[in-house]
Predict the 3D structure of the following.
Amino acid sequence: MQAMILAAGQGKRMRPLTEKTPKPLLPVAGKALIEYQIEALVKAGINELVINHAWLGEQIPTYLGNGEKYNCNIQYSAEPIDAYETAGGIIHALPLLKDESFIVINSDVWCDFDYQQLLSIKLQNKLAHLVLVENPAHNPQGDFALEQGQVKLRGSKKYTFAGIGLYHRALFAGNHTMPLPLGRLLKQHIANMTVSGQLHSGLWFDIGTPERLAAIEKLQTHQ
């Protein structure tokens, strides 16, 4: 199975750190943020990767190369800055994503989720399977409810979308106006009851600010 890592954002909330360095290449305990995701995917047996890039994007393939040093194969999908958004970036990269279903993860999350869990999931009558987590302080209201493995827009309790999902390529079919955020597309299909999900109870952090990056640096250094 292939996996795509979304790495095209500008990281505006991370400035000034991202003025000269793309957010996925910001260092955490001596390693670029995106490298933790690559290593976790390879550990799970996923070694065909696609990475999109835009802001200071040329630095990403220069740094990561073709994936040989990570025991994987990396292909790149270059985008104009702010042209596509998340779902749009996936659609733009579909020619590189050959499988019927594939994993997509955000490059700016740091977690201990075992991606091997997604390899055994058969979407069947679903178009997506999302990983959700307990709500962090910066997203107290959550995003989606989860009831008996079914992701819903409303429920007694909402969880936060972890930026990790398994998607059927049919999810992205049709004509779309760009830029297209993934959240907007997912909500349409969640309303149609075609999105399943699971709750990850382990470590998960959205590295959206310099303060959160510093917290992960401290955590990783003391492990």
User: Anything to note?
Assistant: Residues 2-221 form a domain with the Spore Coat Polysaccharide Biosynthesis Protein SpsA; Chain A fold (CATH 3.90.550.10). The longest strand covers residues 158-168. The two ends are 31 Å apart (CA to CA). The helical segments are 33-43, 59-64, 85-93, 116-119, 182-191, 210-221.
